[in-house]
Amino acid sequence: MGITPCVIRQAATYATATDRKKRFATGSKRPILLKKSAMDSTAEKYALEIEIFTLNRGFRAQISRSCEQKKAFSAVSTRAVWKDRLFQHNRPKAGSGQDDGKAKASGSRVEFPLSVVFRTTSVATVYRQFSESASKSECARYFRFTARERNMIGNTQPHSTSESSHILTRRNLLQAGMAGIAVSVLSPWSLWAAPSGVLVNDVTLLNPIWVNRLFAPRTTDEIQQALAMWSGPVSIGGGRYSMGGQIATEDSLHLDMRQFNQVVRYSPESRVIRVQTGMRWRDLQSVIDPHDLSIKIMQSYANFTVGGSLSVNAHGRYVGAGPVINSVRSLQLVLANGSVVEASRTENADLFHAAIGGYGALGVITEVELDLASNVTMERQIHCMSAADYPIFFNDQVRGNKQTILHNADLAPPYFDQATSVTWRASDKELTVAERLVAPGQSYKLNQTLMWSVAKLPGGPLIRKDVIDPLRYLNHPVVRRNYEASADVASLGPIATRNSTYALQEYFVPVAQFNAFVKQMAAILQAHRVDAVNISIRHTQGDPDSFLSWAREEVFSFVLYYWQHVSVVDREEVGTWTRELIDAALSLGGTYYLPYQLHATREQFSRAYPDAPRLFALKAQFDPDKRFRNKLWDKYYTG
Fold it and tell me: Which structural domain range is residue 184 located in?
């Protein structure tokens, strides 16, 4: 009986060492013959998976490669006898220039040339020829069969290309494969012949979530078609810089928006641009910089996607600008029923104010129209002072100065009583940095070493206070606005390791409560011996219109950057002091930010976001089946 591969599926998945290890160590329930990992981008690594499924009689064979098995598999695959026998059929003629079809060990994974897929005529052939040069234990390690399937293989003999038409010849398999790939290109939603079982995680690696399928759309029509073809939960992810599962939930269709990144319309004369929301700020900067234009409001780093920033209603260091919603003219939203609506302050205003900062609760933000600003020249100015004097300094020197573009202040734990003000003001001085944008892919070994020394070495904070910061702020660079705004998060170094991670939290308090919160925050962090690395202070005007507004009045924000271990006990300890900080902010009339670890109780969430019922009412209206989900709404949505 022949067991023939009959479906070829092509899918893009985000691959990390962690999810590869878990995926192949635990075993997948779907039948996989071979996998080829390829396709690198400048930001992160994808895998182009070519999988052959054997559908006849429920055959579930799989080549399994956990991290521990890869070295052994590489050793077996390089045996000349196995390579010769496995690929002796249909071998290209000498001098033909074609790939010789030999498996190659490449670093952390074994790669099979795509041609191998089309030369292998059955799973039985692979297993039988592999077993001729490998031991029984090696066979059991890489091929998983039921007893019935192993018996089927034992009874299966090699077939010539002239035998029954039930066995695919190489030519037929090639034709079927190319047809399948062509269909997948023309109809991406047809790729869902079987669950993909993709592991989705964020930069902290604290929130591994197995989604059912992953789809990387490129057009709004593809998103609509995906929603029509899929009836289960839907989650949305971009740069994956949130830190609490806001990008996914179990068994969902995960929309990976990073390929949804085109410019829709651009008018340099009007300083307006409309883009797909999977575009990263850094890519948008490359479009507008030649016209000496700059993004009006964004975070301090340019790695984030536009849609992700909208979903959390991000803010930055832009003085007087407020959150990103203040730079948005309009947006396009795909709802749960697949309909496409345009929303602005005058059209579908409720959807506009609920979708921005709504963490994907209502639908997929697919396009956004943004106001732009001038790419002015700026000079950096540094002032050190007592933390208690900072509110007066800000009011006198920063708020009323129309030349001020960017501003923040830093507290360097454990020296919570001292503040360093960092201000960028418009200047007509000669540039000290000629580059217009920070080039991607740079080496930041010095920055990373300094960050590590501050966070990990005994006496690191003192070294920062007396050595690193004085040297870092010695000069007064003059740069273009886009250069400072195009900073790469890679400069911070690796975010997560197997046993630890850096993470963020953020709290907002009314300007009058600045000193009171600094005292309470310092007491809590010191009492719990938190490994706090830095606290960045920003200012923003009130945003009373957003449904999940984190600034219902003028506030100072405190961005806490810290380091933690990742065991269950460590996470519980982080949760304890996090809830204390939330209570401190709430007691002063403030709130906390939602993109981070979900340690807040439901009661704290309700107190911090009293207008959440308005968002939930809209969700009940436009998403009654609760299709759009993630771990944030799994915990706090009460509809």
Answer: 7-190
